[in-house]
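Record type: ASSEMBLY
Status: queued
Input:
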Amino acid sequence: MANVTMTVNGKAVTANVDPRTLLVQFLREHLRLTGTHVGCDTSQCGACVVHLDGKAVKSCTTLALACEGASVTTIEGLASGGALHPMQEAFREHHGLQCGFCTPGMIMSAVDMVNRRGHALDEKTIREDLDGNICRCTGYHNIVKAVAAGAEAMGKGAAPVRQAAE
Amino acid sequence: MYAFTYHRPTSARQAAGLLAKKEDAKLLAGGHTLLPTMKQRLASPAALVDLSSCADLKGIARKGRNVVIGAMTTHAEVAASPDVQEAIPALAYLASHIGDPHVRHRGTIGGSVANNDPAADYPAALLALGATIVTNQRKLSAAEFFTGLYETALEEGEIITKVSFPLASKAGYAKFRNPASRYALVGVFVAKRGSEIAVAVTGAGEGGVFRWPEAEAALKARFTAKSLDGLKHPAKGINADMHADAEYRAHLIGVMAKQAVAQATGKA
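Status: finished
Output:
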């Protein structure tokens, strides 16, 4: 067992964990933040995407101990003051989901995409950058629409996620 | 995963010490091959030495006629680096097409090179550009370094610290990727340095990355995609699996080589 300390959604957390603990297990099982999903568990599907020091990563392929001192943002950390994050709102507005299992990862990836590429995202860019997120309902059409709308909304005064979480 | 102890040194020197001291220890870079392999219980190191806090293994620098990339530099960092984009745009392009955005945030050049996956992208760039792999003990040319399928010249306890790429006057990379894994079904990196031309192929060789001398000779006459017209790579020694048979991959080598040259000559 080993100690790990990190900041999750703005709150400092410390725990004693087995070195084998993956970041996603730590989030779900230790912190009970079950919004981050485990889909494939083989770094393919992207259901487990969270932000680690502001960058989207697959939490099923990251050790919790490797996040010592890091800042992690999960889907639970996006909304603030009871209002949905603009990207969440856009997914709701455009019905960017069917069963919803991939949605947390899709939204975290979409916010990361905006952080990297700005607010004007064309369809080609969005589709390419969603490479690491699989929707097995194949509901990509509305997801792409939602990402474009959410990106634009984030540009209109809505705070980017990193600031929102800190 | 089987149990292991976890260590996080803050320098390459400390990492080397831990690697020597801990029995059955393995280095952890970005972890995007090692952790999935451990989950499948195909690897079961007793100790993991995580290099992510070794600041001396990170960063990108222009040094004279070389671009030097620290082993723990991520694919995303290489792709976004103005130095790399300016000096060897084909290398930035290659890095920007590894895996997906999340994988590129974690995966590192050192990890990729040390693993020498036969379908990885970087080995083709290192071999074609004539890169030097610098370890905590010595320097190796890419040709010496990649010795076979998942095999390299690295000795026990040796750690890659950086990779140095000499500038090329022209370079291009094209890959036909597996749509699911995004690994190269076939990837070809073409580089022209002075009168020297190198064509390196990844994803296709039974023994990992290799050079294609016939294409190099054809390009030496004239460095244009047209020079490769009619040139076919034989299917002998080429990988066959559920994704593509040897004939198909051999055909793709020719197609990707032309695309790489077209990119290198600004005609893509």
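Annotation: The mean pLDDT of chain B is 97.
Annotation: The longest helix of chain B spans residues 246-264.
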